[in-house]
Amino acid sequence: MPAPSKTANKASGKGGSKSASPDAIKVLARNKRARHEYHVDETLEAGLVLVGSEVKAIRDGKVNLTDAFAEISNGEAWLHQVDVSVYVWAHVRNHEPRRRRKLLMHRRELDRLAGKLRQKGFTLVPLALYDKGGRLKVELALVTGKQDWDRRDDLKKKDATREIDRALASRRR
Fold it and tell me: CB-based contacts of 97: which residues, under 8 Å, 6+ apart?
């Protein structure tokens, strides 16, 4: 049986904004600086507690993760410095663009992360914000900072692989 079209969903009152597959992932924002400035040790997924105008703004792509970080305090995970622009069509009482947002995680994950964050040099930063089956999720990474020489080495490796790819592509022609 073919998947119902978006117009069929709208006609039946179910709304057409959700993807056809419940596990379909649509990346809405990426933190491009994170992989450049940090060594990623491990990644994990967490849910977000948001208000309606924030959800609409994020789905419109009006979000910036550049300076964002997460912390665990009092047994709860919080996401700080995420800039979600004000949704133009929302009510007069719109959300605050840079408020802290609660992260939804399992207790075991929180306890394990809290232990690792107590170690010197570890930080929790968001890598991406995405829609997964109609729910907004954030991909978090446990990271350590890179030194300047680490960044230079990464750039040299990237340039070398680019040159190799170029040489292989020219041989194929």
Answer: 83, 84, 85, 86
Q: Which two tokens stand for residue 81?
A: 């410095």
The 10s digit of each residue's pLDDT in 14-37 is 545 555 566 788 888 888 888 888
**Could you give the C-alpha distances from 20 to 5, 10, 15, 57, 82, in angstroms and in order?**
8, 13, 12, 22, 29
**Contacts of 95 by beta carbon, 8 Å cutoff, 6+ apart:** 51, 53, 54, 57, 84, 86, 87
Structure tokens at 141: 């990474």
The total of structural domains in the chain comes to 1
- Domain span at 71: 22-145
61 torsion bin: left (phi>0), alpha (psi -120 to 50), beta (else): left
